[in-house]
Amino acid sequence: MDLTWNLDTLYTSFKSEKFKGDVELLNQNIANLNDWATKKMKDTNNAASKIQEFLKLYNKYKSLYCCLYSYAELTSCSDSSNIEAMNVLDDIEYKNSLVTDSYVKFNNWLNSLNNIDELIDTSPTLIEHRFYLKELLLQSKYLLSENEESLIAKMQSTGSKAWQRLYMELISTILVDIDIEGKPKEISLSELRNMAYEKNESLRKTAYYAEADAYKSISKASAACLNGISGEALTIYDMRGYKSPLEKVLMGSRMDYETLNAMFSSIKESLPMFHKYYRKKAEILGHKVKLPFYDIFAPMGDASTKISYLDASDLIVSSFKTFSQELANFAKKVFDSRWIDAEPRTGKCNYGLAVDIFPIKESRIIANFNGNFSDVVVLAHEIGHAYHSYCLRNEKMLNTDYPTPIAETASIFCETIVNNALLNIVPLNEGFSILEKSISDAGYYIVDFYARYIFENKLFERRKLGQLSVEELNELMLNCMEEAYGDSIDFETIHPYMWMDKIGYFMTDNEFLNFPYSFGVLFSKGLYAEYIKNGEAFVSQYNNFLSATSKNNIVDSAKIIDIDVHSIDFWKNALNLIQKDIDAFISRV
């Protein structure tokens, strides 16, 4: 079975006539959109007709942009040495900035209308885009003038985005000298991080402290990057009228403070159960009471059984079939149509990724399959993302965007299905490894991301007063880690450069890439609890929910499956499922 993907339905190469033709077409669409906005946005005459024209032009532009950018991104992720792909990505990003002025002009013009609901009701096209238009109206209140927004977009390329590129270059190019079984070797930072999952404790420890030394060597430059990115964010969001970067992110996530507070109240209350797990893990690994941080991801049990890629695909399809035939059929199509690049190789990114290409109603998945059962779970996770996209396949391009917290729901739901199937078929020792890995992952997204969330809140508060030194960032990070992990971790082993390990802090316009993942884990657990309770009757509800996520806020989307995300009880029930896993883990020892 082929472990590489086929991108031909998108493009065959950057030099193909189709790719070059679409680049030219994109340029023409940009010119058409800008010309249209200049001529049509002068007055509110024939407003309904103008809104329809904009939607048609912008849908067309976004569809082309999606195809071109996706191809370049996929090519780059699968081969980091492909300079052409990186150059194309930069070029497509620049072209995207050229429509900022027209986009803002339309938003401001839309905001000048006082009868938007009446206008929307006059046309099936406008009714179809009602949620999108209402979202634009909400966002328009936080937009500056066309010239100011256009200037910000252009200046970010030499401001925050330049800082982001510098950080990415620093962490991707730094090489570290390390002894592996007595032999000196020079490896990348990503390879070093992967050693956190090695069976050999000595190697885990050596790699962990080598990672800390590597971060220390680039800490001043990284601090400059973080200060530049966070300082710019505070300035821009203040100019636009947001109370804080968090408010901006919540609005973009279609999530309210009540949901966030209910979730974090439950998480904070649940921390002791995770602390209990970490202390038990420390005991099993032979440590005194507390777990050294270099062992937090240490694998447990005898996870030595291998599985072929063909058997992994069969296992995923059969597991999904226990939920629904539609999900199973979709997974089979993903494998049969070669939507996945699962081959491990030099120069390929070392993380899982699903890219939705809505214009061609397909997705592509990056994974690194080494024959471990944990790799099967990663594949299931990414196919879950693709299935979410499949449920939105009949929507127009502008109606395919769903909030980040929801984005992890389908993926973790599918991951849970396969995890539970694996626990029923693998040997006892292998099952113990899978169970522990599931708890470890949950702890990572709940406990560690809680620390990240606290840090980012405090970072922005401190950044208002001026730049933070490396020492101040270190202290802030350590305090937040201690608050989350409590006395379950040997505090002396937590290196202070953890803030450099969180790529989200360095991503322009993507603040707080932490709580959405906690939400995704717990929300998907809550959904699975509903599935256990309601069985087959839940399947159609689930599909309806996924189909509605692009045209509803989180509260209303959750109501489709009779879930109240404002209820602390919902979050506690989700956490109770993890509690049961922790109890099972402790009882197996």
Automatic annotation (TrEMBL):
<dbReference type="GO" id="GO:0004181">
    <property type="term" value="F:metallocarboxypeptidase activity"/>
</dbReference>
<dbReference type="InterPro" id="IPR013647">
    <property type="entry name" value="OligopepF_N_dom"/>
</dbReference>
<keyword id="KW-0479">Metal-binding</keyword>
<dbReference type="GO" id="GO:0006508">
    <property type="term" value="P:proteolysis"/>
</dbReference>
<protein>
    <submittedName>
        <fullName>Oligoendopeptidase F, plasmid</fullName>
        <ecNumber>3.4.24.-</ecNumber>
    </submittedName>
</protein>
<dbReference type="InterPro" id="IPR034006">
    <property type="entry name" value="M3B_PepF_2"/>
</dbReference>
<dbReference type="Pfam" id="PF08439">
    <property type="entry name" value="Peptidase_M3_N"/>
</dbReference>
<keyword id="KW-0482">Metalloprotease</keyword>
<keyword id="KW-0862">Zinc</keyword>
<comment type="similarity">
    <text>Belongs to the peptidase M3 family.</text>
</comment>
<keyword id="KW-0645">Protease</keyword>
<feature type="domain" description="Peptidase M3A/M3B catalytic">
    <location>
        <begin position="195"/>
        <end position="573"/>
    </location>
</feature>
<dbReference type="InterPro" id="IPR001333">
    <property type="entry name" value="Peptidase_M32_Taq"/>
</dbReference>
<dbReference type="InterPro" id="IPR042088">
    <property type="entry name" value="OligoPept_F_C"/>
</dbReference>
<dbReference type="InterPro" id="IPR001567">
    <property type="entry name" value="Pept_M3A_M3B_dom"/>
</dbReference>
<dbReference type="InterPro" id="IPR011977">
    <property type="entry name" value="Pept_M3B_clade3"/>
</dbReference>
<feature type="domain" description="Oligopeptidase F N-terminal">
    <location>
        <begin position="115"/>
        <end position="173"/>
    </location>
</feature>
<dbReference type="Pfam" id="PF01432">
    <property type="entry name" value="Peptidase_M3"/>
</dbReference>
<dbReference type="GO" id="GO:0046872">
    <property type="term" value="F:metal ion binding"/>
</dbReference>
<dbReference type="GO" id="GO:0004222">
    <property type="term" value="F:metalloendopeptidase activity"/>
</dbReference>
<keyword id="KW-0378">Hydrolase</keyword>
